Predict the structure.
Amino acid sequence: MKATDGFSKRENVIRRSYDISEKMYTQLEFLSKNIYNASVNKLVCAAIKHLVETENVCLFIVEKSDSASKRTFAIPESLVVSLDRLSNKYDIGTSKLVNIAVHNLLKEESEFFETP
């Protein structure tokens, strides 16, 4: 076993912009700054990777008061390709799939956002 076995090989990244819910983006920033040693970009990539692996494509209701903003992320090429495949398979836009991925991640991390 080599010391570098825990690292992934470098792959091309593609910059993509997606409309992301402001509320969810704020929660990602909280996780990034206070809980995990990961940037918002890495959290989004992890969420996309998990969605691609599980295909847990569940629609959710967005609050009317929650606006969305276009955010740009550096996504590994393999995840962009996989996201496009999911988009074609489920006939859902990639921005919606990214929001679903982030929603799923935040649901798993809900313990950090629950208010008494």
